[in-house]
Amino acid sequence: MFTKIMTSDITKATPDNTLVDIAVTMRDDDVGAVPVVENGELLGIVTDRDIVIRAIADGREPSATRVEEVLSEEVESVAPDTDVTDAADLMASRQIRRLPVVDDGQLIGMISLGDIAVKHEEGTAAYALEGVSEGVKASSAARGTRAAAELRPKGDAESAAAHKTASHKKEGKARRKPSRRAA
After folding, report:
1. Among the four 34, 156, 162, 172, which has the fewest Cβ within 10 Å?
2. How many CB atoms lie within 10 A of CB 112?
3. Alpha helix stretches (DSSP H) within 34-156
4. Domains present along the chain, CATH in parentheses
5. The whole model's pTM is what?
6. How many Å apart are CA 43 and CA 134, to the nearest integer?
7. Which pLDDT band, with edges at 50, 70 and 90, does 122 fall under?
């Protein structure tokens, strides 16, 4: 059971909020996903990625686009009495980082990989993150290979080997910026 580790004081949106409203909320609350509710009932979730892919990339005007036009409606959720390991399994298998916690149809909180990592036993979050990251690793590897192939001079094996070595060195030095959000 994870009611002790979930975040219960969560930022929520309504379907008629604009994308500017949501972007400001995300910035001010330092979150990347906001559940969309109506009368307490979870309708979906809007993520920073939804805004970019479903609105900005399509040329939509953020101040005129409503959340209901871009939200993800098919959202996995869990009940408050769900075991943390089961939630981590769901996150890993569906490659998602956050789960709404719903009780009798009402949104009561959110649980994230960060909540599990900070407030639960070691290993559970790492397992979930590995599963979530599988899709990211696969798509990043494919993009990196394509990009390297496009930049590499044809028939130059030495240049290709040097590029591969430089890429590996760069990956080893990468550091993730610490979150400003308090636990």
Report:
1. 172
2. 22
3. 48-54, 84-94, 113-119, 124-151
4. 19-125 (3.10.580.10)
5. 0.64
6. 27
7. low
